[in-house]
Every structure is written in structure tokens, then in C-alpha cells.
Design brief:
Blueprint: H1 3-9, H2 12-21, H3 29-54, H4 61-89, H5 97-131, H6 133-139, H7 142-170, H8 186-230, H9 237-254, H10 271-301, H11 307-336
């Protein structure tokens, strides 16, 4: 995922030799593809943020999580990605000194974990809305969403900063080293793989499966209730009217949104968060699972792959930042349909 890790997987000396022969940037298909995806992702995420700034009425408690996620994407693409790309263009050379290298590695680690935890918060938000709808309507405000996200940011720093400081002090970068490297402690690498990779991905998948089952059970109960009402005997014309009203009432009840509003012109509000959850779950599994498998093999099994495999997982990680704004656009279209 990180360019510093990638520099440990490649032969830096050969790149330095090429750089000594030719100081021109060494553009490759992989670097060009990552740059193109990064620019496209920056435009999409930045445009959606700008839209919400210009139209604050679009902001609601649920979109708070999305806006923080888009902000993290923009920070990564505007600050971290260019530094790594320039370094890769010159064979791993680092031109900005040791303090910037330390900041680069820590910021990259933090933003990576924020990406993972942001998608997990979206899943927990939908779990709360479906499992406890009354509590969700009464307590989930914009302020609550902001506090939840700030709490997540605090958790990320608390769990990431202490071991990073130990690693930075223990493994000092030498002046002869021209790259930006970071050596992680083996025990912390294993713990980080479990806490920041396996657990969030497993929870996102488990929550989505649980919500799918809940939706199916709800539809089945609604169908059973409607069928039972339709089979009631009709004794008189007045009773017919009562049965018809009851039947209509059941239909209306089955078409209530999680916020207690009927599905009319604004009924797509019930669908929109679930569409976002569906897209983000599919994109997370598609873009993160190969990289998780890669690092599990490296950290736990000491199996090393070629640099092409690592580059492939990095491209998938960049694609995730394209899918994030696309899921908002897809859900917005669904809302207006």
C-alpha cells in the first residue's frame, strides 16, 4: 500500500544506477496509470466537496461520514501521493529530507487506516439505523456524526502513534540512504495487519450480510401480513371497506422508511444509504482483499511476491478512492429516480 514498503520490495540500487545514467524521470505504465487514477479521483472527490460547500442543504447526518472520507481522499491525493510518485519516478530517490520522510510515512499510514475505518463507520451507521430505528432517528444528528468521526480519528492516532514513534527512534534513517524507508517491528506488523486489515474487512462483510438477511426477513413478514389480510372473509359491504382500509394500511406500513416517512416522492431516502453501503462493500472487497492477502502472506508467512504483484494491489487501492465518490453519485441518481 505504501511507497515506502514498495521500496523495500524492489532493488533500489539498480534504480539508482539508472538514475545516475539518466536524470530524466522514469515513466512507466504503472506510474502513469496510478497518476491518471489519482488525478481522476482528486477531481471527483474535490468536486463533491465543493458541491456540498456551495449547497450546505445537501449535508445531513449520514453524509457527514462521506464528506470526511472525501476529505481524507483529497488530502492523500494532494499531499502524500505526489511525494511518492516523484520518488518512484527517480528510482526511489528522496529529495525532501528526513523530517518530511517521517511525516510522509506516518501520514500515509494514518490516512490508510482512516480509509478503512471510514467505510466501517458507514456500515455501523446502517446497522444502527436498521437495528434500532427509533434510537437512530432521535439521537443521530449532525453533531453526533461529527463526534463519532472525531472519536475514530482519536482512536487511529492513539493506536498508531506510539509504535510508530518507537520504530522511528529505533530505526534511524542513515545519511547514505537516499530513499524514504521505514522498518516496522515484526510484532506490530502482525498486530496492525489484524487490527487494521482483517478485522475491518470482516466486519464490513458481516454487517452487510446481516443487513441483507434483515431486509429479506422484513419483506417476508410484510408479504405474510398482506396475504393474511387479503384472506379475511368479507361479511358485508362495510366490512369490505374496513378490510380494504386495513389492506391499504398494511401496504403503507410496509412502505415506511427507516426515518418514519412514507415512500412517496422522497421515499428513495430509504434506498439511498443502502445503495451506498452496497457499492462500498463491493468496492472494499474488490480493492482491499488482494492487498490484504498480499500483506498477510508477507507478514505471517514470510512469502514475498514480485514487485508487479505489489504494484497491482496499489492500483486497486487508488481505484478505491475513485469508487468512493462514484457511490455517492450513484445513490444520488437513485434518489432522484
Amino acid at each position: 500500500m505504501s511507497n515506502s514498503n514498495f521500496s523495500n520490495l524492489t532493488n533500489t540500487s539498480s534504480f539508482s544506477f539508472l538514475y545516475a545514467l539518466s536524470p530524466a524521470p522514469n515513466w512507466t505504465i504503472i506510474i502513469g496509470l496510478k497518476a491518471f487514477i489519482g488525478v481522476a479521483s482528486f477531481i471527483l472527490n474535490g468536486a463533491i466537496l465543493l458541491l456540498h460547500i456551495l449547497r450546505p442543504t445537501l449535508i445531513n447526518p449520514f453524509t457527514i461520514y462521506l464528506l470526511f472520507l472525501f476529505t481524507a481522499n483529497v488530502c492523500f491525493l494532494m499531499i502524500i501521493a505526489p511525494l511518492g510518485t516523484i520518488s518512484n519516478l527517480y528510482g526511489g530517490e528522496w529529495f525532501w529530507g528526513h523530517p518530511v520522510c517521517v511525516f510522509y510515512i506516518y501520514a500515509q499510514r494514518i490516512v490508510t487506516v482512516i480509509h478503512v475505518m471510514s467505510h466501517l463507520l458507514i456500515s455501523f451507521n446502517r446497522l444502527w439505523a436498521v437495528t434500532y430505528p427509533i434510537s437512530y432517528r432521535e439521537r443521530h444528528t449532525k453533531r453526533t456524526a461529527v463526534l463519532i468521526y472525531l472519536g475514530m480519528l482519536g482512536y487511529v492516532h492513539i493506536i498508531s502513534l506510539p509504535p510508530f514513534l518507537v520504530e522511528t527512534i529505533r530505526y534511524q534513517r542513515s545519511d547514505a540512504d537516499k530513499g524514504c524507508h521505514h522498518i516496522a517491528m515484526p510484532a506490530w506488523s502482525r498486530a496492525q495487519t489484524i487490527i487494521h486489515r482483517l478485522m475491518p474487512l470482516s466486519l464490513v462483510i458481516s454487517i452487510y450480510v446481516f443487513l441483507i438477511v434483515k431486509r429479506w426477513q422484513k419483506k417476508r413478514r410484510s408479504a405474510v401480513c398482506v396475504g393474511a389480510v387479503e384472506e379475511l372473509p368479507v361479511a358485508s359491504g362495510n366490512t369490505t371497506g374496513t378490510v380494504g382500509q386495513t389492506n391499504t394500511g398494511k401496504h403503507e406500513e410496509s412502505r415506511m422508511t427507516s426515518s418514519g416517512k412514507p415512500i412517496g416522492s422522497g421515499g428513495q431516502r430509504q434506498v439511498r444509504p443502502f445503495v451506498i453501503l452496497t457499492i462500498t462493500t463491493i468496492s472494499v472487497v474488490t480493492c482491499w482483499l488482494p492487498e490484504d492477502v498480499f500483506w498477510i502472506a508477507v507478514v505471517f508467512c514470510n512469502v514475498w511476491f514480485s514487485s508487479a504483484v505489489f504494484q497491482f494491489t496499489e492500483i486497486l487501492y487508488f481505484l478505491q478512492m475513485v469508487f468512493d465518490p462514484l457511490m455517492w453519485i450513484a445513490s444520488l441518481r437513485r434518489t432522484k429516480a
